[in-house]
Every structure is written in C-alpha cells, then in structure tokens.
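Lab channel / #folding
Pinned by the channel admin:
"Please post every new chain as: sequence first, then the structure tokens as a reply. Keep commentary short and put observations after the output so the thread stays searchable."

First post following the new format, from NK:
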Amino acid sequence: MRKILAIYDEDILYAERFAREVNRKTHVPFEAAAFRTLDGLKKFAAASPVEVLMISAETDRRAVREIHAAKTVYLADGRSAAGDGDAFCIYKYQSSANIIRELMDRYSETEKNPPMEGIRGMARIYGIYSPLGQCGKTSLAVAVGRILAGEAPTLLLNLEEFSGFGALAGEDYRSDLSDLLYYFSSGEYSSARLAAVVHTMNGLDYVPPVHFPEDLDLAKAAELPGLIRRIAAESAYRNLVVDVGRSRKITAAILGECDAVFMPERKDPVSQAKIAEFERYLGDSGNGGIAGKIRKVTLPRTACLPGRSYFDQLVWTEMGRCARGLLMRERGQLPPETEPRAGEAWGECRPGEGGSGRIPRRAENRRQSREQGAVI
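Reply from TO:
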C-alpha cells in the first residue's frame, strides 16, 4: 500500500482538486486523500498512519500535532507562517505542478528512505539516436513519447547539450538532469528525487535537460546508463524514451540499455557513409548486438508553429504518423515482411525520390484534400 499524503484546507475544493492532481501523477510515490473536516482527518490518522500532512497554515498547531504525521507541510497564503519543528511551508497559490515538485524536493531532503511503493516492474526503454545532425531526432523522440504517454505512464529523458526544451516550452527550470546525476553519483537518488525534477507536457512527463553541457561529459562512464536503468527498474513508468544526443564515449552503453533504438537517417551518400561507419564501430568495439535493436527511419519535414505549441502539434503531423508506424512495427502489429508505402499513416514516412525531402505524392494528395474539406 502506498503511503498517505493527507490534505486539509478551509477551501475544500482546493484540497480535493490538489488531491486529484497528485493521484494523477504516476511519479509521485503517495496516495493523496483530501479531508473536509479536521475531525475526519483526526479519525483517519488514528486508524492509518499519515506519511505527509499538507494542512492550512491557519490551523491550530496543537490540533496538527495530534495527527502525528511523519512530516507536516503548511499551505501558506502569502502571510507569514512559521514552520513547526521539522515542518515547512509552501505557498499554496501556485501551479499544482510547482507545489508537487517543491513538496518532493523538500521531502527528499529530510527522508533517508523515501517510499518506493508503486513500483510496477522494468519499463521498456526506447532510444532515439543517429550519428547524423539536424535529422529530426528530438522531434521524433517527443512524438514517440507523446504517443506512448497516451497508453501508459511514460518519461522522456533528453541527453542533448542544447535541447531547446526550455525555450520551446516557455519554462525556466529550477532543477534538471544534472541534479539527478548528482544524486545518483552520491548515492542519494530516490523516487522522491525524481518526482522533484519531473515536468509534464500534454500528459508526457520529462526531466529537463542539463543547463550546463559539461555535466554530461563530467559524469562517469557508468552513471548515465546506471541512472537510466535505475529509473526504468524502480519507477512507476511503463515506458522510458531516451533522446541520446550526440555521440560520446558512453553512447554504446546507453544504447545497450535500450529495448529498441529508432535511428533517423538520410539517403544522401555522406549520411549513408556516416551511418555505415557507426555500424562498423559497433562491430569493432564489441557492441554488435546493438545493431539488431536499431530501426532506421527517414523522417518527413514537419512544419509546426514555434513555442510550446510545437510539441502540441507534433502528434498530428506526418512526424506523428511516422512515430505510430515505428511503434506498430516494433510491437509486431505490422508483418515484418510488409514494406510500408511512402506516406502511409501506419508505416515509416520517407521523403520523395532522390532524398529531396518532398512530401510523397500520396501524402500530398491527402493534404490537399483535407485543405479542401474532404473527409479522408
């Protein structure tokens, strides 16, 4: 049974809405319960242990101590509210996502063994990697993540030096992947640490990429693969999507953790030569088994509006169709001997003849029909 996060506030709707939001978050290792009366909360606490109590800062402190919660968090409305013992305050009038991250951050600082309930087994790891640059890799990773998140809890990890996530999402992150790497390397990683870093974008959870690229290069060889393996093994996520970033000394180790690797490619001679060199490297370095996990795909050009809406639109573009086709083929929902036709919604999306990047004629006809109001 997951440990209890009890919530009490004079604003009953506030408490109930926040409890629902917490219970929607698979990465939060608590079961939240909102209480309409203080007496009801006391009766519940007398029968069931409360791990964390979130309660209005205006509540009488003697009544709070009678509940005997392991940790207490006061919900402050902007007026001064002092903590009580090891309790601390959180400003209540901010986004629920910010409150959850602050709660988990503060909880992980004081709890030596954060709760790990909710573990559901090893997540399936999808790697997105290509030795080529400017090939649509990050867009494919987001599209795959969004589609998987519609089916089961999914986490996206971006290992790029400069991902553009903050600018596109309009977020200013207080913590990111660098913090998780630090906690993992120092032996302080936990589900609570992970929950304190995670952000959500249209149902897809993600860890903000590093702010300082040096953090990726300074990490020891086993740390990034080990962190990925730990998240997959101990979290409640069923899918992990890893945007591997550029080639570095630990790339093969990261790809080795993946169950499937989607590799964007281009058909021009230089790009094909780079991919051939990478494949030779895998064989010469003793990582030939990774080649069997790789699914190559030629991605379509995707025109989307800038900003946060870019991620919102990806699923409904040719890139989204391409991602769905890859996942269907990986799951065996498409016969392996079936060769997808250009532009089909269920198969891989490939550019026109000669690698020109034009939309295939069949897809172009569909696009023109949609613009004219036809039903496809």
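NK: DSSP finds 15 helices and twelve strands in the chain.
TO: also worth noting, Residues 113-120, 339-376 have pLDDT under 50 and may be disordered.
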